[in-house]
């Protein structure tokens, strides 16, 4: 089989074009998958395993409330007498068979208090679910801010590596021009290697932060790579301290403590009602086999409170209620003290951030620019450049740390004052 030469002239350019395009596509990095903090919060609220478990606890408490509303079941019993004995009752001829139904009557308001206790338990479950939601949102926001900080540190490491490579290039040129020794060049190469290691470490920390955030909604393998939110976005203005203290009254932790206290009060009533004995009424028919006659049977029974009046149960419930009341008071006091402490800390961090942005960071950037220019003109040594670079990196690191701590304190303050939502 022969192929005309002109055919190859048309086919070869096409093959080369296809091969080149495929290689370019393979070389292109995959697109960065990003999310926003708001999307993370919504996903955590919808998919968190902890919240799903809490929903089932609420459902279980509701079923217990339905169960508590039902009265005791009646009992059906049968009894055979006067058989398998001696003499006239040796056989079944003189046997007496009784079939009766009995019903326990709860006295002292037991059923009413039992229903109230079950409903109080449902209220506690709902309040604890609100607490769990706040915890999930808190952890998600905190993990989001940690990821944004990790991304910022990665960018800083990339900038530092770029700067070091530029310094290494200048050092190599100075060596070629005979203006510097090989010692300066080798030192620059060592700094470049260390900067590369630092960048790799920051990138690994960023990947770990992505996984920590994804775990908040039960995702073991993240479906995103980074957050698109700005790191240094201005948060909402801080409300006055008195306003925040008033808002803290709606803190889910405090509301849950109040719900537990109310449930303990209902439990005291239930234990007191248990002191009243119940009545058991019974009625049935008795069959006399010997005469084939029938007779009506009725009875009533009551528990005799000889050994216990359930006072121990009442005292135990009262002790539990007092312990819960004191715990609620302690929680309120600690919350107020923590709010005051965080408020003062936020003010100090804000002043530190402003100082770094307006003074320390601009001075460090200007110093590095001047020394780099002097180094290129052989008016400054390599060590001067390194020292100026370290000062700038240190200033940027301190700014990132200050912003991260500020955001962390604001998130904690929002949780204490019930200012969480799916959009902040």
Describe the protein in words.
- The protein is an alpha+beta fold and 424 residues long.
- It has nine helices and six strands, in the order αβααββααβααββαα.
- The chain has one domain: Outer membrane efflux proteins (OEP) (Up-down Bundle), CATH 1.20.1600.10.
- 67% of the residues lie in helices and 10% in strands.
- Helix 4 runs antiparallel to helix 5.
- It is elongated.
Notable traits:
424 residues; alpha+beta; Outer membrane efflux proteins (OEP); 4-stranded antiparallel β-sheet; two-stranded parallel ribbon; 9 helices
* Percent of residues in helices: 55-70%
Question: How would you sum up the global shape?
Answer: elongated
N-to-C order of helices and strands = HEHHEEHHEHHEEHH
Strand order of the largest sheet: 2-3-5-6
What is the count of distinct domains?
Answer: 1
| Number of helical stretches of at least 4 residues | 9
Characterize the quaternary organization of these chains. single chain
Q: What is the strand tally?
A: 6
């Amino acid at each position: 089989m022969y192929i005309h030469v002109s055919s190859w002239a048309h086919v070869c350019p096409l093959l080369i074009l296809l091969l080149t395009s495929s290689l370019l596509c393979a070389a292109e990095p995959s697109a960065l998958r990003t999310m926003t903090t708001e999307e993370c919060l919504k996903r955590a609220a919808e998919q968190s395993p902890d919240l799903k478990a809490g929903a089932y606890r609420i459902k279980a408490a509701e079923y217990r409330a339905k169960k508590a509303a039902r009265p005791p079941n009646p009992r059906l019993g049968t009894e055979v007498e006067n058989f398998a004995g001696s003499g006239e009752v040796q056989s079944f001829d003189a046997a007496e068979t009784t079939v009766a139904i009995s019903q326990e009557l709860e006295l002292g308001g037991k059923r009413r208090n039992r229903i109230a206790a079950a409903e109080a338990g449902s209220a506690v479950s709902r309040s604890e679910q609100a607490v769990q939601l706040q915890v999930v949102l808190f952890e998600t926001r905190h993990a989001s801010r940690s990821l944004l900080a990790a991304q910022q540190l990665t960018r800083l490491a990339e900038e530092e590596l770029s700067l070091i490579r530029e310094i290494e290039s200048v050092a190599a040129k100075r060596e070629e021009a005979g203006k510097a020794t090989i010692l300066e060049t080798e030192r620059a190469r060592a700094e470049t290697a260390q900067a590369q290691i630092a960048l790799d470490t920051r990138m690994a920390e960023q990947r770990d932060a992505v996984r920590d955030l994804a775990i908040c909604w039960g995702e073991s393998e993240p479906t995103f790579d980074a957050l698109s939110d700005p790191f240094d976005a201005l948060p909402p203005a801080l409300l006055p301290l008195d306003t925040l203290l008033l808002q803290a009254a709606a803190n889910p932790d405090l509301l849950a403590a109040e719900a537990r206290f109310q449930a303990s009060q209902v439990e005291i009533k239930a234990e007191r009602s248990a002191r009243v004995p119940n009545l058991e009424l019974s009625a049935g028919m008795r069959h006399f086999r010997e005469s084939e006659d029938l007779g009506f049977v009725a009875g009533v029974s009551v528990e005799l409170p000889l050994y216990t009046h359930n006072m121990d149960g009442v005292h135990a419930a009262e002790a539990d209620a007092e312990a819960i009341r004191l715990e609620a008071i302690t929680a309120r006091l600690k919350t107020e003290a923590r709010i005051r402490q965080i408020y003062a800390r936020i003010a100090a961090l804000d002043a530190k951030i402003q100082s770094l942005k307006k003074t320390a960071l601009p001075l460090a950037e200007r110093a590095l620019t001047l020394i780099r220019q002097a180094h290129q003109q052989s008016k400054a040594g390599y060590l001067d450049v390194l020292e100026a670079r370290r000062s700038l990196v240190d200033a940027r690191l301190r700014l990132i740390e200050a912003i991260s701590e500020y955001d962390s304190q604001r998130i904690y303050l929002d949780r204490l004052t019930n200012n969480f939502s799916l959009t902040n």
